[in-house]
């Protein structure tokens, strides 16, 4: 029996779409499991000690697009993307991007500062606390990055290391967000 | 025939898709488990080695005992031995130098799959011959190809049987005397 190649191609395409959908669903279900329904919600505010001894409040950056990156010194993939954040902060800072690093580390603030200095970090880093991780759905692995729009709402959460182009694309989406500044 | 081949191809595609879904960080949790160890008999005042077998869940790796980068958490076994039993040495396997998709130009010294740690135990001469439990923990920090998981501790426990050495038995046999009365 002869099969129409067009039908086979259509079936193959349907299977491919189902595959992509399935992978996306797996990603989302894991996100939903860990982070609840944070997307579209106001990013939980926190006040944490920064490496220069000051207290940094997330809400101080309302009106800016924020890339909130949870990382640690023992996390090799985190080390890969941090130099990208440095470049992207330089590139998009004038447009209103603020990268903020949250060190979920058991290393001392001095060690964290030395580590950040070696990588040439040009954005503020705060020393994370477990409860802040919990507010963000439980940061169970690193890196975990949240993209927060100018209105203070979480647009996207990304698990693990992704490509620089994906990071840049999420930054552009956050910068494009021109919504009203949300009231807490 | 064509249909069968097509279905086979589709099944392969689905398998690849499922494998990709498995690779998504967070879709699985890293696991390190210890296989039940055999009870090793060790003579008093002598050294004996207990081999502890560990298994790392597929798709994950942990740093070796001597990671190449200073900030990485090394795998380390910490033991609390009973009084008069000395942990003389803990022998770790050499790590395997591997590069990962997140840093293809960098080699990391890691363990993956199965690995064994040797524990050299030396009971002092004064230890009562019986079984003793030795407890401790394995400190490790796992990563997959795209993400790292916080440092963890695996509880570790094994038993050693302390026995008298053959020499001790000989020494304790009283000399036979023709004058001994029963």
Structure summarized in a few sentences:
The complex is a heterodimer of chains A (184) and B (182). With 184 residues, chain A is α/β, with parallel strands linked by helices.
What's the topology here?
The complex is a heterodimer of chains A (184) and B (182).
Chain A: H1 5-35, E1 47-49, E2 55-57, E3 65-71, H2 76-92, E4 97-103, H3 109-118, E5 125-127, H4 130-135, E6 144-148, E7 154-159, H5 164-176
Parallel strand pairs in A: 3-4, 4-5
Antiparallel strand pairs in A: 1-2, 3-6, 6-7
Chain B: H1 2-23, E1 32-34, E2 40-43, E3 48-56, E4 61-63, E5 76-80, E6 85-91, E7 96-100, E8 103-111, E9 114-123, E10 131-140, E11 142-143, E12 152-163, H2 166-172
Radius of gyration of chain A: 19 Å
* Chain pair forming the biggest interface: A-B, 36 and 33 residues
Mean pLDDT of chain A: 85
- The whole-angstrom Rg of chain B is 25 Å
Quote the beta fraction of chain B. 35-45%
Helix content of chain B: 10-25%
Give an overview of the whole structure:
- The complex is a heterodimer of chains A (184) and B (182).
- Chain A has 184 residues and is an alpha/beta fold.
- In chain A, 42% of the residues lie in helices and 18% in strands.
- Residues 23-34 of chain A have low confidence and may be disordered.
- By secondary structure, chain B is α+β, with helices and mostly antiparallel strands.
- In chain B, strands 1-3-9-6 form a four-stranded antiparallel β-sheet, with no helix packed on it. Chain B has a four-stranded mixed β-sheet with strand order 2-12-10-5, with no helix packed on it. Chain B has a four-stranded antiparallel β-sheet with strand order 7-8-4-11, with no helix packed on it.
- The model of chain B is unreliable at 11-22 (pLDDT under 50).
């Amino acid at each position: 029996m002869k099969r129409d190649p067009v039908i086979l191609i259509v079936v193959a395409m349907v299977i491919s779409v189902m595959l992509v959908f399935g992978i996306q669903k797996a990603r989302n279900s894991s996100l939903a499991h860990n982070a609840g329904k944070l997307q579209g919600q106001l990013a939980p505010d926190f006040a944490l000690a920064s490496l220069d001894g000051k207290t940094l409040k997330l809400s101080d950056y309302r009106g800016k697009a924020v890339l909130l990156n949870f990382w640690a010194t023992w996390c090799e993939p985190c080390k890969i993307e941090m130099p990208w954040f440095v470049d992207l902060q330089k590139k998009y800072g004038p447009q209103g991007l603020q990268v903020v690093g949250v060190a979920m580390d058991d290393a001392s603030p001095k060690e964290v500062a030395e580590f950040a200095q070696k990588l040439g970090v040009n954005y503020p880093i705060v020393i994370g606390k477990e409860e802040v991780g919990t507010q963000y759905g439980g940061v169970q692995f690193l890196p975990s990055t949240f993209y927060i729009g100018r209105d203070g709402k979480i647009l996207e959460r990304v698990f693990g290391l992704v490509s620089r182009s994906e990071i840049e694309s999420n930054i552009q989406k956050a910068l494009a967000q021109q919504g009203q500044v949300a009231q807490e | 025939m064509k249909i069968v081949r097509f279905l086979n191809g589709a099944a392969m595609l689905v398998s690849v898709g499922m494998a990709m879904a498995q690779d998504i960080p967070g879709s699985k949790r890293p696991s390190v488990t210890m296989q039940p160890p055999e009870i090793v008999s060790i003579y008093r005042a002598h050294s004996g080695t207990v081999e502890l077998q560990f298994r790392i869940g597929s798709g994950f790796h942990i740093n070796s005992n001597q990671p190449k980068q200073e900030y990485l958490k090394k795998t380390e076994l910490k033991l609390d031995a009973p009084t008069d039993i000395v942990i003389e040495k803990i022998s770790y396997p050499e790590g395997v130098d591997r590069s990962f998709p997140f840093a293809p130009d960098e080699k990391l010294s890691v363990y993956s799959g199965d690995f064994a740690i040797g524990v050299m135990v030396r009971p002092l001469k004064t230890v009562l011959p019986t079984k003793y439990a030795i407890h401790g923990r394995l400190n490790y920090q796992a990563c997959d190809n795209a993400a790292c998981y916080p440092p963890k501790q695996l509880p570790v426990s094994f038993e050693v049987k302390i026995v008298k050495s053959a020499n001790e038995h000989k020494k304790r046999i009283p000399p036979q005397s023709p004058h001994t009365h029963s």
